[in-house]
Amino acid sequence: MLLSITNEPRDYAWGSTTLIAGLEGRAPSAAPEAEVWFGDHPSDPADVAGGGTLDAHTGGKLPYLLKLLAAAAPLSIQVHPTRPQAQEGFARERGMDAADPTRNYRDANHKPELMVALSDRFEALSGLRPLVDTKRLLASFPDTNGVIALRARLDVGSDADALRETLAWLLSGSAQAEVDDIIAALGEAQSTEFGEALSAIRQIAEHNPGDPGVVVALLMNFIVLRPGEAIFLRAGLLHAYVSGLGVEIMAASDNVLRGGLTPKHIDVTELLAIVDTEPGAVPVQRSSGAITTYDVPVADFALRRVQVDGEQRLSVAGPAMVLATSGVVAVSTAGGHALPVKIGTAVFATADERELVVRGQGEIFIAEPGRS
């Protein structure tokens, strides 16, 4: 069975008034449009054409959540737990009210993510940069007290230990004078190698004056994705989306440990217990040909980007979703009635469906459970 599904955009403050509207070919919105959720998550299950919500058809057991995400301002720096960490944390906090803003664990699941760019430029911070590179970046800063203190802390012990201790220092509240000094020095830093990263972090500082997360951002890889390019965000990987429009898919979870660029609760102790401070580059996955299957090393979800040209038959491991992001496309089962997929909406295929027929011209994303 196929179902047409939609949802109303969530109006988080960092959302864009133009990106989702532009994708769908309508005028800018009056309020920010940050995310459109296509899933059965109890916080916001998708609406089904004809009435009701998707959870009534899935029992709330869909293993993934598919989203459109539109960032006009930086999201919080955050990290997600492994499944064992989530299970332990959820059990520990079971007695806390679900609405308690200090609660870290909303469920017992992990939350790996994949982000694919739709806009011409999608900016993200992902993972901690190799320390040798960060030291070159900081060499472009003037020798102020805060900068000197930061360089010194990054030069003690192993790279992973130095970064863990530096994160603890920055987020503890005791380093605010140094944080303010480093942010002030940011305006004087000059580097050809790190010019794009410095420009982005200056904008982050404008949105988040005095926030220690601005200095944390200096320690992270700055990544620019082009349309169809993707990054996979594993458990423990510190990250933040900065700007742009993309398709995001994740395990069905709402567990977030925040580390800056937010007025929301930051639990430094729990963050340091979850975050992986081993530095390194985060690989960018490129699009290739008419069908790109992204490398996702978890069983919760899989995602394909398909350039539709005429009629194509595609096998799926249901329950699956087809999200349209450009052109004119319709979806049917073999010999079945075709459902048009309006840009910015999706068609849901129940678990018994094993092949979908797509017709038209445009771009779609197919989400389904992982096959590994």
From TrEMBL:
The entry's keywords = Isomerase, Metal-binding, Zinc
Asked whether the UniProt record includes Metal-binding among its keywords, one would answer yes
Q: Which cofactor does it need?
A: Zn(2+)
Organism of derivation: Microbacterium esteraromaticum
Q: Which family does it belong to?
A: Belongs to the mannose-6-phosphate isomerase type 1 family.
One Gene Ontology CC term in the entry: cytosol
The UniProt entry annotates the active site at: R258
Catalytic activity field = D-mannose 6-phosphate = D-fructose 6-phosphate
Please name the InterPro entries in this protein's record: Man6P_Isoase-1, Mannose-6-P_Isomerase, Pmannose_isomerase-type1_CS, PMI_typeI_cat, RmlC-like_jellyroll, RmlC_Cupin_sf
What is the cofactor note? Binds 1 zinc ion per subunit.
Kindly list the positions annotated as binding Zn(2+): Q78, H80, E113, H239
Its Enzyme Commission number? 5.3.1.8
Q: What is the lineage of its organism?
A: Bacteria, Bacillati, Actinomycetota, Actinomycetes, Micrococcales
Gene3D superfamilies per the record?
A: Jelly Rolls (2.60.120.10), Phosphomannose Isomerase, domain 2 (1.10.441.10)
Q: What is this protein called?
A: mannose-6-phosphate isomerase
